[in-house]
Amino acid sequence: MSVATGEPWASLLGALHTVITVCDSVVIVYFLAINTSYLVLILIALGEFVRTLRRAPFAGHDEAATSPLTPPVSVIMPAHNEAAGIAEAVRAMLLLRYPEFEVVVVDDGSIDGTLDALREAFDLAEVEYVVPDDIPVRGGVTSVHLPRGGPVRLVVARKDNGGKADALNVGINLARYPLVCMVDADSILDSEALLAVAKPFCDDPQRVVASGGVVGLANGCTVVAGRVVEARVPPDLLGRVQVVEYLRAFLLGRTGWSKLGSLLIIAGAFGLFRKDAVVAVGGMDPDCIGEDAELVIRLHKHMREQGRDYRIVFVAEPISWSEAPSKLKVLAHQRRRWHRGLTEILLKHRRMIGNPRYGRIGLLALPFYVVFELLAPLVELAGLVLVPLGVLMGAVNADFLWRFLVVAYIYAVVVGMVSVAVEEYAFHRFTRWRDVWGGLVGVVAENIGYRQLTAWWRLRGMWDGLRKSPQVWGAMTRAGFESPGQVREKGGDRV
Amino acid sequence: MISAGLVRGALLGLLAVVLALSLLIVANRFVRRHRERRRERIAAPVRGSLLELLCAEGDEQTELLNRLAEIDRRTWAALEPTLTTLLGKVAGGARAALVRLYELRGAAVDAVTELSSRSAARRGRAAQVLGQLSHRPAAPSLCRLLADRDPEVRLAATRALGRCGGPEAVPYLLESLYGPRAVPPAAVIRALVSLGPQAQRSVAAGLEHPQPLARAVAIEVLGATGVVSHTSEIARALREDPQIEVRVKAARALGRLCMPEGLEPLLAAVRPGRPVALRMVGAGALGTLGAVAATGPLAELLGDPDRHVAATAARALLQLGPEGRAELHAAADDRSRGPAAAQARAVLAESAVGAARHDVRAEVAL
After folding, report:
1. Cα–Cα distance between B286 and A306 in angstroms, integer?
2. Is residue A420 within 8 angstroms of chain B, CB to CB?
3. Of A226, A305, B4, B91, which one is least surrounded by beta carbons within 10 A?
4. Residue A376, burial from CB neighbour count under 10 angstroms (0-12, 13-18, 19+)
5. DSSP letters for A119-178
6. What is the pLDDT of residues B301-318, one digit of tens each?
7. Does domain B270-366 have CATH number 1.10.3470?
8. Mean pLDDT over residues A70-98, rounded?
9. Inter-chain residue contact B22 with A440, CB threshold 8 Å
10. Shortest CB distance from A72 goes to which of B1, B353, B362?
11. Residue in A177, A411, A425 nearest the CB of B14
12. A–B interface: beta-carbon pairs under 8 A
C-alpha cells in the first residue's frame, strides 16, 4: 500500500528535481550570458572611444560652432509643475553654444505657477498664434507667449494637461527649425551639448535621423548657473550604485549598440531628431510610458519599411546631466515605470521581433531586449527561489553552488570595473580620488541587494504593462545640487 | 555540468582580472596626471616667449621665431597643444607669426608627408594642420584626399581646402558631392564660401553641372556670397531645373541676392500646385527680396490650406514694410477670411511685442 502511494510522489519529486536542475542550469547560463553581453558591448564602446579620441583633433567642432550653415535647432522642453527651477533651466538652455536655435517650453497644465515664473523671468507677452497641426495632440494649446522686444529665442506655450508625450508633440508643432532637440526641464546640458549632438547631422545630413546624448548622473555634482562645473560621485551608496549603472548601461551600452547600428533608446532627457522624420511617423505616442524609446523604434520601423538608408546614432560624450532618485521609494517608481514602458513597447512592436525585414533591429537588438532586459527580472528572481530550492532538494551541489555564486558575483564586478576603467581612460570626468573610490564601492554594492531589488520593481512594472493598468507617474522628489551660494531645490509630481 | 575545478579556475582568473583592473585604473590616473604636470613643467620656460612672439614685430619677432624654432622636440611637443589653440584664436600679425613658426619647425612639410600615411587619424590630423596653416601648396594633395576611403578624413580635407584652396579646388569639391565616397553638401558649401570671391567664377561653372546636387550647391554658394552677376542663371534654374532640390535652393538664393530678376520666378514658384517646400521657401524669399509687387500674391497665400506656407507668407508680408503691414491689417480685420485672418493677427501680434520669428532658413529642411 505504502509503495503504491509512494511511487507517484517519488516520480513527482523526480520530475520536480529534473525541472529544478534544468531551471538552475538556465539561470546559471543566463547570468553568464547577460554579463558577457554587457562586457561585449563595453568592449565595442571602448573601441569607439579610442577611435573618437584619436580623431578629436580634426573633428571640426569649432567650425560647426561658428558656421551659419550649421542646421538650426528647436529645443523642446516640456514642463509640468517645474516652477522652482524652470527659469534657471531655460536661461541655461538659452546660453548654449550653438549658431542658431530657439527654446520652446510647453507648460503641460502646471498648477504651481510654472508659467508665472517664466513670465516674470523673461517678460513674456501673450500673443495670438496659429499652431500648426503637423502632429495631432490631445491637450489643446490655451496660450502662446513670447518675450517682449528682444532677441531672446524663446516660445512658451501653455496647454491643457495631457502628459509629457503630448506636450512634446505640441512642441514639435511649434518648432520652426528642421532639427528638434527634446530635453527634460530638469536636464542640465554642458554648454557644448547641442554642438556635440548635432555633429552627426552636420557630418552625414542625408542619413542621420536621430542622435542621442549621454546622460550622466548629476547627484552630488556642483552646479553653477545651470551647468555642471564639477562632476562628482554622490556620497550615498544608492547614488554610487546608480553612477556605475548609468556608466555601464547608458554610456557604454548605448555606445556599443550605436556602433552595431542598432540603437533602440535615445533618452528623453536629451535627444535630437529630424523634425520631418518625427512628423512622418506621427510624433510621440501619448499612450506609451516609454515614449522616447518607442519613438526611436518607430523611426527604425518606418525607415526600414521605406527602404531608406538611415542612421540613428549615439554621441559618446559627457554632455547632459540628470538627477537620479536618491530615495528607494522614488527609485522603485522610476524602475517600475521604465520596465512597464519597455514591456509596452515590445508588445506594441512584437511583429518586428525576429523579423528579418527589420534587419539588425529585428534580428539582434529587439531579441536582445526581450531576453536580457524584459525577462531579466523574471529570470533573476526565479533564480533566487529555484537555486536554494535546488540545493534543498539535492538537485544542485551546495559546494558547487557557493563557488559558482562567488564566480558570478565577481564576474559582474569585473563588468562594472571595466565600465569605471573605460570612463577613467576616455573621459576622466571625476577628478577626485574619492570619486574613483566611490565608483568602485558602487560596483561592489550593485550586485548585493540593489540588483535584486530592482528586479522586483521591474517585475512589477512588467506586470503593470501586461495588465495594461492605468498609467501613474510617480512623485520625483529632487534633492537639488551642490552649488556655491545657492542650492537648487525642486519637487513635484509628473503626469 | 560545470566541474568544480573549472569554477575554481574561473574564480582565480576573475580575481586576477579585478586586481589588474584596479591597478589599471590607479595607474592610468597617475600616469595622466604625471604627464600633465611634466608637460606643464617643460612648456613653462618657453610659454613667455610664445606670448611675446604674438605681440612682437620686426627684428624682435625674427629673434623670437628663431629661438622658438630651435627648441628641442620634447619642449615642442609640450608646447604644441597651446600653439594649436592659439592658432585658432588669433588673427593678423600674431597668426602670421605662429604660421611662420610652424613652417620653420617643418610642420607643414611633415603634414604634407603625413597626408599619405596609412593611418586615417594621421591623415585627418595632417589635413587639419595644413588647413590651420593655410598652406596653399598642399591644396593639390588635399584635393586628392577628398576621395579618401575614410569619411572623416574627407571632411577634414574639405575643411582644409576651404582655408588653403583656390579656384582650382572648386571642381574637385563639386565632384566630391557624389559617388561612393561623397562629402556632405554642407561641408562643401562651407568650403566653397570660404574660398572667397576669386573662386566664385569657378563655382558658377557648377550651375551647368550634370549632377543636380552640384548645381544645388553652386546655387547655394552663389546666393550666400551675394554674387549678383549670376542672378539670371539662378532664376532660370528656378524656372526650368527638373530637380526640386535645385529649385528650392534657387528660390532661397534669389531671396538673398535681392535682385529684381528674382521677382517673377519667385511669384511663379509660390503658386498653388507647386511643391510645398518650394512654395514655403519662395514665400520667405519674396519677403527677403522686399519687392512691394509681391504684396498681393503673398496676401493671397495667407489663406493657403498649408499652414506653413500661410505662416511664411504672413511673415514675408511683415518684411515688405508699410504695404505688407497694411495688407496684414486688412486681412486681420476681415473676419470672413477665417484662417487668413488668424495668420495675419498672429504675425501682427508677434510684431507688436517685437519678437517676430522670421528667418528664411527656418523654412528649409536639412
Report:
1. 35
2. yes
3. B91
4. buried
5. HHHHTEEEE------SS--SS-EEEEEEETTS---EEEEEE----HHHHHHHHHHH--SS
6. 998 998 889 999 999 999
7. no
8. 91
9. yes
10. B362
11. A411
12. 158
Residues of chain A positioned with their CB less than 8 A from the CB of B185:
205
Residues of chain B with C-beta less than 8 angstroms from the C-beta of A414: 14, 17-18, 21
- Split at pLDDT 50, 70, 90, the class of A485 is very low
Q: Using a CB-CB distance cutoff of 8 angstroms, which residues of chain A are in contact with residue B156? A: 58, 60
Alpha carbons B30 and B41: distance in angstroms, whole number: 16
* Binding-face residues of A in 204-263 toward B, CB within 8 A: 204-206
User: How much is the pLDDT for A364?
Assistant: 95
A446 near A35, Cβ under 8 Å? no
So what's the architecture of B183-267 in CATH?
Alpha Horseshoe (1.25)
pLDDT of residue A139: 80
Most A-contacting residue of B7, B83, B217, B315 (CB-CB within 10 A), to test interface: B7
Pairing of strands A222-224, A227-230: antiparallel
Please give the CATH superfamily to which domain A41-373 belongs: Spore Coat Polysaccharide Biosynthesis Protein SpsA; Chain A (3.90.550.10)
Cβ–Cβ gap B307/A130 under 8 Å: yes
Which of A 126-185 lie inside 8 A of B, CB atoms? 127-130, 132-133, 146-150, 152, 155, 176-179
Which of A69, A133, A204 is facing B190, going by the closest CB pair?
Answer: A69
Q: Do A60 and B155 touch (CB under 8 A)?
A: yes
Residues 438-477 of A with CB under 8 A from B: 440
d(C-alpha A457, C-alpha A338), whole Å: 10
Whole-Å CA distances, B288 to A46, B44, B137, B316, B320: 49, 53, 40, 7, 8
Q: How many CA atoms lie within 13 A of A423 on its CB side?
A: 29
Whether A412 and B14 have beta carbons less than 8 Å apart is answered as no
- Selecting from B11, B21, B363 the residue whose C-beta is nearest the C-beta of A403 gives B11
Contact A77, A103 (CB under 8 A): yes
* Strand boundaries in A307-458, DSSP class E: 311-322
Fold agreement (B183-267, B270-366): yes
User: Can you tell me the distance from the alpha carbon of B214 to that of B177, in angstroms, rounded to the nearest whole number?
Assistant: 7
Domain boundaries, chain A: 41-373
Whole-angstrom distance, CA of residue A338 vs CA of residue A345 = 11
B59: distance to nearest CA of chain A, Å?
A: 33
ipTM: 0.84
B363 vs A contacts (CB less than 8 Å): 176
Inter-residue contact A302 to A425 (CB < 8 Å): no
Reply yes or no on whether the pLDDT at A491 is more than 60.
Answer: no
Q: What tens digit of pLDDT does each residue of A203-229 get?
A: 888 899 999 988 888 888 888 888 888
Q: Does A2 touch chain B (CB under 8 A)?
A: no
Integer Cα distance of A284 and A264 in angstroms: 15
- What residues form DSSP beta bridges with A145? A126, A156
> What are the domain boundaries of chain B?
183-267, 270-366
Return the closest-CA partner of residue B357 out of B311, B321, B326, B325. Answer: B311
Intervals of chain B under pLDDT 70: 1-3, 335, 337, 355-366
Which of the 8 DSSP states describes residue A469?
P
Cβ-nearest to B354 among A150, A276, A404:
A150
